[in-house]
Amino acid sequence: MKVLLAGATGALGKQLVPRLGADGHEVVGITRTESKLALLDELGATGVVADVLDPDQVARVVAQAEPEVIIHQLTALNRPFDIRHFDRTFEETNRLRTEATDHLLAAGRATCVKRFIAQSYAGWPFARTGDLVKSEDDPLDPAPPDGMRRTFDAIRYLEDAVTGAGWTEGIVLRYGGFYGPGTSLSREGGAQTEQIRERKFPVVGNGAGVWSFVHIEDAAEATVAAVTRGRPGIYNIVDDDPAPVAEWLPAAASAIGAPPPRHVPRWLGRLVAGEVGAVMMTEVRGASNEKAKRELGWQPRHRSWREGFAEAAA
Ligand SMILES: NC(=O)c1ccc[n+]([C@@H]2O[C@H](COP(=O)([O-])OP(=O)(O)OC[C@H]3O[C@@H](n4cnc5c(N)ncnc54)[C@H](OP(=O)(O)O)[C@@H]3O)[C@@H](O)[C@H]2O)c1
Asked: With a 6 A CB cut-off, is 288 part of the ligand 1 pocket?
C-alpha cells in the first residue's frame, strides 16, 4: 500500500515508518521542518514538508502522493505538560484533531483513499461510571470536567469525523498511555519519568483511577496491522493489564530506582493539580484490547506495563 503518514517524525511515527516499510508499504511522511527530511529518509519514508493546519498545503501533498491509506498521528505534545491547564496544554493538539482532520479527510476524499486511520486516546475520555475497564462500545464521559472539555470535544470530533466518513474505511485507534523510547515515560529524559524520580507525581486520594498503557513499539505494530486488517470503527490499543494509579505508580517508581511516590489527600491533589488532575488519579477508566486482538490479529509483545516499565528502564 502507499501510505501517507501525518506525524511521521513523532514518538509513534518514528516507530511506525520502519515497520510499515518492513511490511512492504511505501511511506510518504509529513513534517513541517525541512531539516527533518533526512530523518525520514533514514527511517525509510519519502519526506514532504507541509503544515497540516493549512488546507492548501495538505491538498497539495496528498494529491502529489496519491496514497491508498492516510494515517493521522498528529499531536503537539512535545512541551511541558501542565495538568492544571489541561485544555491550554492541548490547544494546538485540539486544532490538529479538528482542523487538520478535516483537511486530511477532504484531501483524502478528493484522491479516493481507501482507508483513513487516526489516533485517539483510551482512558480519560471514557465515562467515569460503571465498569473499570471499557470496551469500544462503552459510552464516553457525558460530563467531562470543565478544564478538559475542549480537549474532550476535539477527541470526540475526530472520532466522529473519521468513523462517519462513509466514502472510506475510517478507523480510530484509541491508544493507551505510551511508554518506551521517545515517550514521556522513557528512561532518557522522559518528563513523567523525571517527575516520578523527583517524587513530584504523587498518588492522589485513593489512587483508584484506572490507566491503560501500551508500549510505543506495540502501538506501532497495531497500527501496521490496521493498515490491512480490521474494519471501519474504533479499536482500543492497550496492553492486557489496566491498573489503578495506586498500583502502577509505585511500580513505575521502583522500575526506575526512585523512592516510592508520596500520597496526598484528594483535596490537596485537587489544589495542586486541579480537578482534571484529581479526576485522572481517582476516577478515570482503563480499556480492554479484546477487539483489537480478535480483529487486527495483534498481540502486544509487552503484555503488561509491570514487565514493560522495568524493561524500558533497564
Ligand atoms: N497515547 C499517548 O500516551 C500519547 C499520544 C501522543 C503523544 N504522546 C506523548 O506526547 C509526547 C510528544 O509526542 P511526539 O514526540 O509525538 O511529538 P509531537 O510534538 O506531539 O508531534 C507529533 C507529530 O505531529 C507533527 N505535527 C505537529 N503539528 C504539525 C503541523 N502543524 N503540521 C505538520 N505536522 C505536525 C510533528 O511533525 P513535525 O514536528 O516534524 O512537523 C510530529 O511528527 C511524547 O512523550 C509522546 O509519548 C502520548
From this structure: no
The neighbour count for residue 280, using CB atoms within 10 Å, is: 22
Let me know: does 256 contact 311? Beta carbons within 8 Å. no
Compute the distance from residue 199 Cα to the ligand 1 centre, in Å.
26
Rounded to whole angstroms, the Cα distance separating 192 from 179 reads 10
Give the model confidence (pLDDT) of 182-227 as tens digits: 998 887 778 888 899 999 999 999 999 999 999 999 999 999 999 9
The SS3 assignment for 244 reads strand
DSSP 3-state assignment of 176? Answer: coil
Cβ-based neighbour number of residue 136 at 10 Å: 16
Closest CA to 11 of 184, 156, 148: 184
Strand partners, 117: 71, 171
CA of 10 to the centre of ligand 1 (A): 5
